[in-house]
TrEMBL record:
<feature type="signal peptide">
    <location>
        <begin position="1"/>
        <end position="30"/>
    </location>
</feature>
<dbReference type="InterPro" id="IPR002022">
    <property type="entry name" value="Pec_lyase"/>
</dbReference>
<keyword id="KW-0732">Signal</keyword>
<comment type="similarity">
    <text>Belongs to the polysaccharide lyase 1 family.</text>
</comment>
<dbReference type="InterPro" id="IPR012334">
    <property type="entry name" value="Pectin_lyas_fold"/>
</dbReference>
<keyword id="KW-0479">Metal-binding</keyword>
<dbReference type="InterPro" id="IPR045032">
    <property type="entry name" value="PEL"/>
</dbReference>
<comment type="pathway">
    <text>Glycan metabolism; pectin degradation; 2-dehydro-3-deoxy-D-gluconate from pectin: step 2/5.</text>
</comment>
<dbReference type="InterPro" id="IPR018082">
    <property type="entry name" value="AmbAllergen"/>
</dbReference>
<dbReference type="GO" id="GO:0046872">
    <property type="term" value="F:metal ion binding"/>
</dbReference>
<keyword id="KW-0964">Secreted</keyword>
<keyword id="KW-0106">Calcium</keyword>
<dbReference type="GO" id="GO:0030570">
    <property type="term" value="F:pectate lyase activity"/>
</dbReference>
<dbReference type="GO" id="GO:0045490">
    <property type="term" value="P:pectin catabolic process"/>
</dbReference>
<keyword id="KW-0119">Carbohydrate metabolism</keyword>
<feature type="domain" description="Pectate lyase">
    <location>
        <begin position="64"/>
        <end position="284"/>
    </location>
</feature>
<dbReference type="GO" id="GO:0005576">
    <property type="term" value="C:extracellular region"/>
</dbReference>
């Protein structure tokens, strides 16, 4: 095993803000409705979830304090359905499920503010479409499986348009022809934790540059703050994640067997990348479908890149945006950097995986100032993430932080 570390000074700088002393570790288990008639914070169902929040989305309360609604139908729409519960969530609403369900959706579900969709205790699967979180705040999505079956050009969870205080946790996401998760268009204060991303091509974007002028929406999108921890990216192709602009704290995640590349950062994103585990083998079978459909109408396959993929745990800093930057520099007179500002430390590389990212102007990366359950990366941590990430009831140890 190989560890890639930053300079001693940088380790000291970042280490001072780990704040492990503020974190109390405790066993927390999913609790059933416990006869709660409302979703008060005194209800065990509510408190057991809210007690493990951390990261930039740690103040999300979802539907706490509001009505408790039970989904009883696995139809796409109509009384008792998930869609109906969301349509009528005009006040804080905590949504649970009456049993195991597979819901074949005909269109995206829109999530309003002050809502929790809580699948704990049951096996709840959404097919073909997922959630759109637009101009919403205080949203929690937990313990759900969302499988796009490569049928639609949409996302499993699309967080956009100034949405804020969003927490997605313990989701199992796969097979969407666009992406699994977006955080874009002024969205901020988002935490992504214990999510399993798998069997997908362009997995996740933090900001999406659609203008010919790369920095046209910089002021809008640079407000993004995203925490990602204890997520499992496995059997994907690329963008685990790809981040432009904004602030990203990426720690204790496991990236395993990407076919093209692991992560990508550029365009003055500010990222702390610490304690992650990268595992890849240059000799393995390809698990991709015959091709991935793309919005450009191209049928793409990446199996041919597997032999070289371990050497691309990430793209070189700014590489994904460099050509477009150079093409537009004269026209728009860019004064900003095409590279990201990076603080990199204590990452672990297993198998054939090789380190790529290194510090770049780390003094321009905001220090992490919240409590977090940082763990030194190890093969034992990798095994636990494989076992516990996703829509699983297995959760041996979670965190209770002291700064909510």
């Amino acid at each position: 095993m190989k560890h890639h570390r930053a300079s001693g000074a940088l380790r000291k700088r970042i280490g001072t803000v780990v704040l492990l002393g503020m974190c109390l570790f405790t066993r927390v288990h999913a609790v059933e409705n416990a006869n709660c008639s409302v979703a008060s914070e005194g209800c065990a169902t509510v408190s057991s979830l809210l007690s493990i929040r951390e990261g930039y989305g740690r103040d999300a309360t979802g539907g706490a304090g509001g009505q408790l609604v039970i989904v009883s139908s696995q139809e796409d729409e109509g009384p008792g359905t998930l869609r109906d519960a969301l349509l009528h969530a005009r006040t804080p609403t905590w949504i649970r499920f009456a049993g195991n369900m597979t819901i074949e959706l005909k269109s995206q579900l829109r999530v309003p503010s002050n809502v929790t969709v809580d699948g704990r205790g049951h096996k709840v699967t959404l097919l073909d479409y997922g959630f759109g979180v637009y101009r919403s705040s205080n949203v929690i999505l937990t313990h759900l499986t969302i499988d796009g079956r490569n049928r639609t050009f949409t996302q499993a969870v699309d967080i956009a348009n100034a949405s804020h205080q969003i927490w997605i946790d313990h989701l199992d996401l796969s097979r969407f022809s666009a992406r699994l998760v977006n955080v874009k268009n002024g969205a901020t204060d988002v935490t992504v934790s214990w999510v399993k991303f798998h069997d997908d091509n362009k997995v996740m974007l933090i900001n999406n540059i659609t203008s010919d002028n790369l920095f046209a929406n910089f002021d809008r999108d640079a407000v993004a703050r995203v925490t990602m921890h204890h997520n499992y990216f496995v059997d994907t192709v690329q963008r685990n994640p790809r981040a432009q602009f904004g602030t990203v704290h990426f720690y204790n995640n496991l990236l395993e067997n990407w076919d093209f590349y692991g992560m990508s950062f550029g365009l003055e994103a500010k990222a702390v990348i610490e304690g992650n585990i990268f595992a890849n083998s240059s000799v393995r079978s390809c698990k991709e479908p015959p091709f991935f459909s793309t919005v450009e109408g191209v049928e793409a396959s990446y199996c041919k890149y597997i032999a070289d993929s371990p050497a691309r745990s990430a793209l070189a800093n700014g590489e994904a945006d460099r050509k477009r930057y150079e093409a537009g520099a004269k026209k728009y007179g860019y004064s900003r950097d095409y590279r990201a500002f990076l603080a990199v430390q204590d990452n672990l590389f297993l198998g054939d995986a090789k380190p790529i990212l290194e510090d770049y102007l780390p003094e321009r990366v905001p220090a992490v100032s919240y409590c977090r359950t940082y763990e030194h990366p190890s093969e034992a941590l990798a095994a636990r993430i494989r076992r516990e990430a996703g829509n699983t009831s297995t959760q041996s140890q979670s965190a209770r932080c002291g700064d909510h």
